[in-house]
């Protein structure tokens, strides 16, 4: 038995049963005329320039969870929601951040003057011994010669875990790793429980210089890591609520979300200032629009650390809220000019209410949107609570993903506009006052054919 009235109504055939759009597109059916009327009511208000300007502001600096950059971003997002008239709150939660402490290396008694990065998870400690180069540190490359020595490793081809474990199993007492071809900097690396040797990273240039020195003779090395370990920091979710018209409240809840944090070394224009910008823009146009459904617009923190913010938010929902939450629309990376086409991902690869509404809205606006299977974003915690949820994203991803090049100049206003129109239209189809549970056939959306697309992210 379906307990959510909206899901039940759609399951009876209004949307969930795949059907073709009307063949005679030149003469819209009555339903379709009504659909376009309410689409236009929403779409005509959406401004790509507004979204672009929001991205420009948010991407001025990285917004990694637990940093000042994130806090500035959440204060801005909160102020915008409040400016639109929403009941708004910051929801703090604790995350663990790795503090690399201090790391130092020396070669042949001379202190290394370049930058040294401590691997996340590295133990504190010191090691001194001969340096031995083991290439990529595959199982075939690492032999007994590393016993009692410090392993010099090139990054690439194998996981950090495998590389460290291979030299650790052969008796290495420390690890110095440098970047692979085409990679810059040295802010990388994870060590794992049980890999009890100090582990650090240096740049590719410094690493290749050491490889050359080793071809001409031996090198004595020392590695020292102090005060490294996890520390608690605070990240935030920003939650904005719009109550339905008091005389038309159907008890249902819809959430629309994006994540506001970025990776530490990137401005995150597309990932995910674009999703935040679209969320804010939809909040703006829905603020004065009558609805029979409670709307919640949420931006999540610490998505890049494993969906921590969205899991926290989902875990704070009461059983009644979960029961009444009929749909969650997640927008992540919706503005890149260099990414592929729009797709709707669900964690289990099955259609649901959100994908049905999204496909129907897309068919009216620019063409039905296909769906695929993918977790890895903030729709997952809602799905695990039994709430219909989908991720709206362009795939395959752009080359600038998770890099310092994820900047404003790569943003497409056309893609921003298209996604905001589709999601806004789909949300309004549920929330408009004359569609309690979409039972009124006059305004029920035409179902759209849309297919599974095994497209990689």
Question: Your description of this structure?
Answer:
Strand 14 (341-346), helix 10 and strand 15 (371-373) form a beta-alpha-beta unit. The chain starts with a helix and ends in a 26-residue tail after the last helix. The radius of gyration is 26 Å and the shape is elongated. The longest helix has 19 residues, at 413-431. The protein contains 12 helices and 16 strands. The chain has 2 domains: 5-97 and 232-443, Zn peptidases (Aminopeptidase, 3-Layer(aba) Sandwich); 101-227, 3-Layer(bba) Sandwich (Glucose Oxidase, domain 1). Residues 1-30 have low confidence and may be disordered. The strands form 2 sheets. Strands 1-10-12-11-13-16-14-15 form an 8-stranded mixed β-sheet, sandwiched between helices. It has an 8-stranded mixed β-sheet with strand order 3-2-9-5-6-7-8-4, sandwiched between helices. It has 457 residues and is of the alpha/beta class.
The CATH topology of the largest domain corresponds to Aminopeptidase
Strand content: 15-25%
- The level 1 CATH classification of the largest domain is Alpha Beta
Helix content: 25-40%
Q: Which secondary-structure class do the elements indicate? A: alpha/beta
Low-pLDDT runs of 5+ residues are 1-30
Tally of helical runs: 12
Number of spatially distinct domains:
2
What is the global morphology? elongated
Please summarize the sheet with the most strands: 8 strands, mixed
Strand element count: 16
CATH architecture designation of the largest domain: 3-Layer(aba) Sandwich
Query: What is the H/E string?
Result: HHHHEEEEEEHEEHEEEHEHHEEHEHEH
Strand order of the largest sheet: 1-10-12-11-13-16-14-15
Give the overall pLDDT as a whole number. Answer: 90
Mind telling me the C-alpha Rg?
Answer: 26 Å
User: Could you state the CATH homologous superfamily of the largest domain?
Assistant: Zn peptidases
Give the termini distance in whole angstroms.
Answer: 35 Å
